[in-house]
Specification:
The chain is α/β, with parallel strands linked by helices. It is built from eleven helices and 15 strands. Strand 3 and strand 4 form a beta hairpin.
Length: 384
Amino acid sequence: MLSDAQRFDLEDKPSAVYFYCVEPGLPTNTAYQHETVCLAEGLTRLGIRCYSNIDYWLDAVSGNYLLKHDQAVRPEDCSVVILSHNWFDFQPLARLPERLFAPDRKYITAYIDNADGLVTRSHKSEFRQFDHIFRAHSTLLANQPKNMHPWAFGLSERILRHTIEQPKPLDRQRKLLVNFRVSHPVRAQARTNFLPRLSPILPSDESIDALESPPAPFTPDYIDWMQTGRRHYPGYYHRLRSMLACACFGGFFFEPSLQSLPHGITHRLYRLLNKIKPNLKFRGVIQWDSWRLWEAFAAGCTVFHLDFEKYGMQLPIMPHNWEHYIGVDMEDPQATVDRLVSQPELLEQIGLQGQQWAYNHYSPIPTARRFIKALNSSGPTPTS
């Protein structure tokens, strides 16, 4: 990490930022660099010049790239240099960029990590060289390196653009959107222990767009579908906007006392124990963040997830249960249903309050401001 003597004064904001990005590839295996997009959009809106090693993220409306490669601009010409976990996940033989941690460097280094798992690549010793690591899926119940900040998937301008037109809560279908493609232990428990209890007052809609059915070719929606690795569907956004609530459960339960075990062993152990004793109680959850969570917030849906505080789920700025979302305690899921039966108006209220909370704290500009604040700090930004 930079010493005090090497660290320069950023003042209010950096002059220019350099991103290392990965070539997108085919839609079936696209390196969708969501956090990079969100952050670059916010920095750009703040008037900060953003450069990259490649042209990345074509704006489907304007036809311009968000991040542009300029042969005249090198990483060392910028105030901040950013790398993300996609650099390694989609380039099996990739190494840290040459001279990234050169002793004479004048820039601050940052790493964005939204990789799955309790222990990720950024926990390795060589990543202590980064001045800052911004970690999604963060948990209060696990040991974290000192240079690691809690982070979030957050909201991009694409998400905001496709969720902006919404009916009033009372005009929405009184349904819960459940559109999981992949089964996680948290989702399995929600399906078994919670959703059947909820269905008499909030029935589920489990419509899912087929992966092999893209939007019409050469349209803005098709461009976004390609760039997001087949995660962009107009029909899905329509359902989000038209329904009252969305199930955003996801992740793997874990026990803090087992965190020293390799990540793969921990997951296999949980799966085995879950089969033996389905209601086994774990104190924490990992791999819990998702695009769906933020899309639901942006669309004004009432978000259903686990209770963030009970399960140690950590964000830079925390939402409040029963104010911004509905957090379920899987040890007593009936309590959530009983409260909704007695206070049915909460579903409409919480959706609007959660939407405003997400806009205020996790749209591109506040995300960029929080990033800049962290760069100017001597340690990770405290959770509030």
